[in-house]
């Protein structure tokens, strides 16, 4: 299944800062990846858990497969070209009937990536619906500058600082509903958030965050990046290993180092720091 965005989808991304419902794998492939992920979660809770959801693709083969999936990279290539670096990944998991939510924010605010035109691919491993707290996007907001964010450190807020843009007109938010195996792509300045999961089942998504051109610079610290397609003539990102087995425990120390560096970037200037 080769996935290339249509001209209409590319125009929509440029105009709205988001394009969604792109099928990048079959439902049965998504179910199988979910099974492998959940098996790792239950067998290795000390390595992958609620506070250990960043950059698990360095350890888990199932996530490494997603990161390198041709269908995803074909679509990303349509938007940023054929040389592609992936900086980080985040598992966004909302447990059944939980209060976990994401306040409205722009990813580019704390990421330190310049220029700010990188993008996130959000891949659904379960369905993502209004009921279970799908991502909601403010179309066209990527054309704005970075808005003022306040740090709330809200208890059930999944974001590091609980960062929030206030006074968003919720009426303007578009629900990005996805089937398992579909993805959305959003620009680093697109304002987005999500509500709690009111359903009786888990909502599982993985954000490949961010895909960028190798010439992009990290201006807040040192970041790692995987060259997932094409060439890197710049060397702006330190390279990392790929898992060699289903759960590669030999990469745990590396993942922890990457996450410590990422925290320095994401919490720069914050009053306090959480465990993720
Ligand atoms: O998964 C969610 O609910 C939020 C995702 C998000 O903020 C992101 O992908 O940048």
Description of the molecule:
- With 276 residues, the chain is an alpha+beta fold.
- It has a single domain (7-266), classed as Sandwich (Jelly Rolls).
- Helices cover 23% and strands 23% of the residues.
- It is built from six helices and 15 strands.
- It has helices at 7-16, 27-43, 61-67, 70-80, 108-111, 252-266, and strands spanning 18-23, 84-86, 89-94, 102-105, 113-114, 119-124, 135-138, 150-151, 163-164, 173-175, 182-187, 192-194, 203-212, 217-218, 226-229.
- The strands form four sheets. Strands 1, 2, 3, 6, 11, 13 and 15 form a seven-stranded antiparallel β-sheet that branches.
- The termini are far apart.
- The model has no long low-confidence stretch (mean pLDDT 95).
- Bound molecules: 2-oxoglutaric acid.
- The site of 2-oxoglutaric acid (AKG) has 11 residues, from strand 6, strand 12 and strand 13.
Shape: globular
Class from secondary-structure proportions? alpha+beta
Q: Which residues sit in consecutive blocks of at least 5 with pLDDT less than 50?
A: none
**What is the number of strand segments?**
15
As a percent range, the share of strand residues is: 15-25%
When the domains are counted, the total is 1
